[in-house]
Amino acid sequence: MTDDRTPPAPTPIPADDLTRGLTVARPDVDQSLPHIGLVGATYTILVSGADTNGTYTLIDMHVPAGGGPPPHRHDFEELFSVLEGTIEVTFRGETLVARAGETINVPANSPHGFRNVGDGPARLLCLCAPAGQDEFFTLVGQPVATRTEPPPPLDAAAQAAFIAKAQSLAPRFRTDLLPPPGADGG
After folding, report:
1. Which of 21, 63, 106, 108 could form a disulfide with 67 if both were Cys (CB 3.0 to 4.6 A apart)?
2. What does DSSP say about strands 103-106 and 142-143: parallel, antiparallel, or unpaired?
3. How far is CA 37 from CA 61, 141, 179, in A?
4. Does residue 130 have a cis peptide bond before it, meaning omega lies within 30 degrees of 0?
5. Under DSSP, is residue 34 helix (H, G, I), strand (E, B) or coil?
6. pTM of the model
7. What is the mean pLDDT of residues 89-94?
8. Beta bridge pairs of residue 72
């Protein structure tokens, strides 16, 4: 007689994949890391989806005072660790403040956004699992030279082109760009 409550035998851990190497990111000195200007901030891809077999990506975010992405949602988990500064996070319409040393996990598919409410730049580590956000940022953003260099300002035509490109690529990366609070959305 078998006990139906017995858990299945664990599967063995796979062998070490010797085709994969160690990833070391030094964002302040490694000029080979992609530094991407996006929505007024600079995002540095520390660990890409290519580095992790698509499991996750890790992004260093340098966000100026008043900066941050508009409301959005996506079909992957997103975790923020605030390293410097103060961030106001809006999650499902509720607002909270996260300060240096605090970490927030945003569940997949939930509407959210954030804004730097401090007087100086904020620095966040952003982990997205699975990966893909690194590709999206690379495709819609502008390369900049360093982790703290702001992107060049966009004139009206460039801003419109950026919005059109982001909106056209968002579905491919399982992302919805949402209207700002109070906007009619239609």
Report:
1. 63
2. unpaired
3. 10, 5, 22
4. yes
5. coil
6. 0.90
7. 94
8. 112, 177
